[in-house]
Amino acid sequence: MTRILQTSIPFNPLEERPLPGIQPASMDSWLHCDDAFAAQMQHREQLLSSRRSDVLALDPAAIPASQELLDIVLAQVYPGSSDYVTRPDGQSVLVDRDRPLDTLCKLVQEDFCILQKQGDAHVLTGAILCFPASWTLSEKFMRPLIDIHIPVDSYDENIARRVQRLFDGIQPGRPLWRFNALWYEDAELHQPRSANERRDPQTAGSAQYLRSERQVLLRLPQTQAVVFSIHTYVLAAELVAQMENPA
C-alpha cells in the first residue's frame, strides 16, 4: 500500500447533495495542485510504467481530442511551454504530443476520461486513469455512460437520462464540477475493482481514510469531446473528525 495523504480538501466532501450534484466551475481553477503533488506524481509515473495497460486506453478516434486536451492543460498550467516543462516539484517533463495521455499523466494530478458522442450516448474513448475508485478502465473502455456507471445502485434510468442531457448541454468554456465521498480502510490511490466484485460500503467510524474526488466536466471547443477530470484527495479519518468538529 502506498500511503499518500493530503492535509485538507478545498471543499466540504461530507456536504450532502442530490445526484448528480453538479455546480458551475471556472476555466481558471478546474485543475488543482495541492500538498500531495510530488508524491502523487511519482506514484502516477510508477503506475504508468509498471501497469500501463491498466491505467491508459486510447481509441484512435480520440487522439485529436486527447491532443486538444493536452494543449488546454499546457496553456493553463504551463503557459509558454515548448518541448519541456518544469513541474512544481522541480521535475522536468518532455511534452510528447504524439503520446498526449502519457504526457498528461506526468503534468498534473488529475486523471482524465474522454467521452465522445456516438449515436445517442457518450462513449468512453480514451483515459489516463491512475487512481480509480473501485472500478476498472478495461471494463469501461468504449462503453456508453449507462454502462460505465453500472453497478452504482443510485444510477438508475432516470439519473442516466439526466446525465446524458447534462453531457449534451455542456458548453465550451463553462465547466461543471461535483464531488463524492468514499470511506476506505486502505489509503492506496490505485483501487481498481471489477464490476463483478462488489465493494462493501464503509462509513465514518469503521474506516481509516476518507477519499473524495473533485470531478470536472469540460467540453473541448474544437473536437467537441467531453472531458471528465478527477482530482483525488485522501484524508486520514482523524483530520476529517477535526473538520467536522473544529475547535
What are the defining features of this structure?
8 helices; 10 strands; globular; eight-stranded antiparallel β-sheet; two-stranded antiparallel sheet; 28% helix; 247 residues; alpha+beta
Overview of this structure, please?
The chain contains 8 helices and 10 strands. With 247 residues, the protein is of the alpha+beta class. It has one domain (26-242). Strands 1, 2, 5, 6, 7, 8, 9 and 10 form an 8-stranded antiparallel sheet that branches. Helix 1 (37-50) runs antiparallel to helix 4 and helix 3 (63-77) packs parallel to helix 4 (100-107). It is globular. The chain starts with 22 loop residues before the first strand and ends with a helix. The model has no long low-confidence stretch (mean pLDDT 90).
* Count of distinct strands: 10
- Computed CA radius of gyration, to the nearest angstrom: 17 Å
Fraction in helix = 25-40%
Structural class: alpha+beta
Extract low-pLDDT stretches.
Answer: none
How many discrete structural domains? Answer: 1
Determine the number of helices (DSSP H or I, runs of at least 4 residues): 8
- First-to-last CA distance: 32 Å
**Multimerization state:** single chain
How are helices and strands ordered from N to C? EHHEHEEHEEHHHEEEEH
> Mean pLDDT, rounded to whole units?
90
- Proportion of residues in extended strands: 15-25%
The largest sheet is: 8 strands, antiparallel
Shape: globular
